Amino acid sequence: MAKDSTLLAQPAFRDAKRDLDDVVDQCGSVVLGKRQQLRLALSCMLAGGHLLIEDIPGVGKTTMAHALACAFGLQYQRIQFTSDLLPADILGAAIFDKKNSQFVFQAGPIFNQLILADEVNRTTPKTQSALLEAMEEQQVTVEGKTHPLPDPFFVIATQNPSHQTGTFPLPESQLDRFLMRLSLGYPDGAAERELLAGQDRRQMLDDMLNVITPARLLELQRSVTEVHIAEPLLDYVQKLLDFSRAEDRFMHGLSPRAGLGLVKAARAWALVEGRSFVIPEDVQAVLTAVVGHRLNLKEDSNASPESAANLLMENVDIIS
Q: Cα separations (Å) of 50 from 74, 97, 147, 150, 265?
């Protein structure tokens, strides 16, 4: 696909790449050896989506979320999800004020710019569902009254593998609210050696600098909507959707929401790359993270997210 050099040279997109590279560098100094995952997480935030990180305990899920909050200077709140957590513990509740003889809304921890829903699948489905309206509408309703959430607003949820004790698998409707799902995995040898010999990660988080402001983040989100995606690439995305719906090996196909998410994520990835236009490789770069939690293979319910994405890429031709 032809690339317009005048688009590539636009100063606004060069500036965006510089700022976003700084974010990745800053976070990468704390979350070692995970630059690709950081770039995907960053793309998810730029697209205005929410992120699910699934992996075993202790590989840096919480650290990544906290590092991103620090880099953007976002109001950050970690919520530890447990089996006895109630929706009101997240959203807040109306408390009776004896002095004024009226109920006053006391906001819960959801009223921050970046929420870490830690081990989200360790709480009950009722409490998990408390996040649905917040993630979809950027607002919460308590006792019939609607309360807007901050802007920007992100949920980064972590979950342990479903085979571990004491977990409640997220239903499909909840999974679909996450634009991307990532897995961090173990660090490579060099990164782990640096981790073992280096400074405590919590201290490093305390010392992190704000690389860009929340206001600049909102500007970058608006820039994502200006990234051009050509008609042939929309055809490619649509063919991916059509194949997922026609392929018998999938339990069900991708929804229109998934298609919209794929386009947004590809645009955001292009911005991270410093381009004002999408190329096929941008779609493929984000494909696994966007569709891996939305597609299940009939013959193997434990298949990796990469299996579903690879099946799509192997059977749908890139439009040249």
A: 15, 35, 19, 14, 11
Domain boundary assignment for the chain: 26-211, 227-320
Instruction: Please give the sequence-ordered ranges of beta strands (E in DSSP) within the chain, or none if there are none.
Output: 51-54, 76-80, 92-97, 102-107, 114-118, 139-142, 145-148, 154-159, 180-182
Reported as a single tens digit per residue, the pLDDT across 35-50 is: 999 999 999 999 999 9
| E strand map for 91-210 | 92-97, 102-107, 114-118, 139-142, 145-148, 154-159, 180-182
Give 283's Cβ-side CA count (13 Å radius): 29
CATH topology (fold) of 227-320: Helicase, Ruva Protein; domain 3 (1.10.8)
Residue 258 pLDDT grade (very low, low, confident, very high; cuts 50, 70, 90): very high
102-107 and 92-97 strand pairing: antiparallel
pTM for the structure as a whole: 0.89
26-211 belongs to CATH 3.40.50.300: yes
Provide the percentage of residues in the chain whose pLDDT is more than 70.
Answer: 93
